[in-house]
Amino acid sequence: MSILNDLSGPMDLSSFDNAQLSELGEEIRQFLIASVCSTGGHLGPNLGVVELTIALHRVFDSPLTPIVFDTGHQAYVHKLLTGRRAGFPSLRTAGGLSGYPSRAESVHDVIENSHASTALSYADGLSKAFEHAGSDRTVVAVVGDGALTGGLAWEALNNLGVSTRPVIVVLNDNGRSYAPTAGGLARHLKRLQDRSGYAAVVELLGGTAVPAAAGVDSIFTALGLDYLGPVDGHDIAAVESVLNEARGRRVPVVVHCLTSKGRGYAPAENDAVDKLHAVGIVDVATGRTPRSAHTTHTPVLTWTDAFADGLLSAGEVFPELVAISAAMLDPTGLQRFADRFPDRCFDVGIAEQHAITSAAGLAMGGAHPVVALYATFANRAFDQLLLDVGLHRLPVTLCLDRAGITGPDGPSHHGIWDLSMLASIPGMRVAAPRDAQSLAEELHEAVGYADGPTALRYPKSALGPPIRAVQQWDGMDVLRTADQATVLIVAVGSTAQAALAAAGTLAEGGVECTVVDPRWVLPVNPSIVDLADRHLLVVTVEDGIRSGGVGSHVRHALSAAGTSVPVTNVALPTEYVPHGSRAELLAHYGLDAAGITGAVLAAVRGINSGASGPVRAGLGMSGLDAAERSGSGVSGSGLSGRGLGAAARDGGGTGGGTRNSPALRPLQRSQRTR
User: Which residues are listed for Mg(2+) binding in this entry (predicted)?
Assistant: First the structure.
């Protein structure tokens, strides 16, 4: 009989004896290994909190006592204990179980923001709300030592330290975020462990030691919180005992629990990089991607790999180049640079705001910092980018991995706000490479630029094939053209491949397109106006939100120049994008080849419906139906409620008037090569 299979909810835990709890812990660990290895997800963090989470749900009555998980990637055990075991086969798939806490899934999930260092502020606010309502309900916040390297956590602790409200901070100390925890806090926590060990030895020898619960010389007690621990986070009884003591104090208390990331799974325990923090579909026996007769022995290169290569090359050329990571050396591709230039690479912990302002100081001192972040985490440092870097026009380069649609990690991990955010910073130049070669070139250009900040953005995916430019046009790469091209497709970064495929489909139906990669997409290259003026329709394609993105700036540039060429923006709506595979989501929002084809055809139909005869001919009306048939054979994404491309197209604001074909000046090679 399986204890886990029969578990209906956390209330069942109170009836289990020690042997049953131990058996349950082992079942959960084995279930997680088998399940996550088959679906992908966060493995190492969850293996480290099995016993801790069981103890939490035995001591506290969730959801009456809210349990707030910081970051949330360690909440799989919590999901199992709150009745969601059956959903794990759909983990992180479209319409399936979220990889993070989700309020839509369960009343036991309090928050679903999966950015680090936020839980203590949520807990502070919740406890204030309870007090205001006349209640003394306890609030529990579970936070890792890695997340405590973020400044927001200390802002919350500073406030909790002068509070008398019952907030219990469960410090899950495994010594790591991805890599070992950076900074002085890690040393302090280690000293607390050493002191506890010393006290135990003294007591064993018959002496008198200061009780661990007294919290002498803890940074937490210095701030005004009580401190209990450290305690073995894998000993359910010990954790329950200290949690019960903390609950009885009715004041803010830090409970320091020591855990091991990846515990109980040898491939994770032996993984020096990040203890198998997150995995794709892997072989349970090895923790690595399975090989088959059909698997190539050539590793699949990613955009992160291309950045790592480009940065290493740039580091050899530019001695002033230094690199900064916010606790993600390996995930952002900085590890090889750190190995090659250890004195030129700085890991500042989960502290994006500090990373950017520290980069500003480095730039003031003559260095050229490259700050590598996930695009979604750059949102946290907007003020620093705007005023600490931008205002001073400092040569800082921001390299944004996971830009655009990322896939299964869901709303808080999609990097879809960066273009709109960066576009509002005066003097900021933004590049969007389309392949590995353009990434390396644009990175070198960025590091060689000394007159202000720069940024590069690239997605989370395998690299596509190289995309050769057929010619250049004032700093932009023309990827496809035809003498009678009537549609200009402006492809931002990695959307170039889908844009080219769409252009091929459209050409088969008689609608010829020019496809251009602007390379540096913001500010808009003024020559786009001239290029647009040689076409009857402009279509911009970007995997960021439409509002304030590249397309809106292209439209503004054309309007400011008095050009009435209609503009259609194929982009994302201003909404929170759910989790699902990257391919599914791109198709759902009309950012694959079929969606782009459909957007162009819809715009052409819109123009032709009110145009005179010559325009109708110029836009290939005779081949329109054929092109539509060619582009309609792609099946839907499986996501309901939105037509193909409909949510991502914006045909509004196309300007007044239409243009006759005599005004059309097809691009000739002699005109475009400059």
Answer: 145, 174
Q: Are 303 and 461 in contact (CB under 8 A)?
A: yes
State yes or no: 114 annotated in a binding site: yes
Count other Cβ atoms within 10 Å, centred on residue 278.
Answer: 18
Give the residue among 552, 661, 648 at the shortest CA–CA distance from 611.
Answer: 661
Say yes or no to pLDDT of 93 above 60: yes
How many beta carbons lie within 10 A of that of residue 286, not counting itself?
12
Annotate 76-141 with three-state secondary structure. Answer: HHHHHHCCCHHHHHHCCCCCCCCCCCCCCCCCCCCCCCCCCCCHHHHHHHHHHHHHHCCCCCCEEE
Residues 672, 623, 485: CA angle, nearest 5 degrees: 5
Please give the model's pTM, rounded to 2 decimal places. 0.88
Residue holding tokens 């989790």?
Answer: 579
Reading the block at residue 497, the tokens are: 């491949």
Q: Rounded to an integer, what distance in angstroms lies between the CA atom of residue 380 and that of residue 400?
A: 13
* Contact call for residues 403 and 418 (beta carbons, < 8 A): yes
Q: Is 542 annotated as a binding residue?
A: no
C-alpha 363/C-alpha 322 separation (Å) is 10
- The answer to whether the annotation marks 352 as part of a ligand binding site is yes
**Residue 286 has which token pair?**
């090895």
Is 73 annotated to bind a ligand? Reply is: yes
C-alpha–C-alpha distance, residues 208 and 422, integer Å: 60
Instruction: Tell me how crowded residue 443 is: count the other CB atoms within 10 A of its CB.
Output: 25
pLDDT tens digits, one per residue of 112-142: 878 999 999 999 999 999 999 999 999 999 9
| 3-state class (DSSP) for residue 548 | coil
- Say if residue 237's pLDDT is above 90: yes
Rounded distance between C-alpha atoms, residue 211 and residue 216, angstroms = 9
Quick one: tokens of 509? 């139906």
Q: Is 147 annotated as a binding residue?
A: yes
Q: Which residue in 413, 357, 358 sits closest to 385, CA to CA?
A: 357
Residue 670 zone, left/alpha/beta (φ > 0; ψ -120 to 50; rest): alpha
Name the band, by pLDDT with cuts 50, 70 and 90, for residue 1.
Answer: confident
Is there a cis peptide before residue 523, judged by omega within 30 degrees of 0? yes
What is the crossing angle of helices 50-59 and 236-249, to 10°? 40
- The edge-to-edge listing of strands for the beta sheet with 513-517 is 471-473, 476-480, 513-517, 487-491, 537-545, 567-572, 649-650
Cα–Cα distance measured from residue 279 to residue 579, given in angstroms and rounded to the nearest whole number = 16
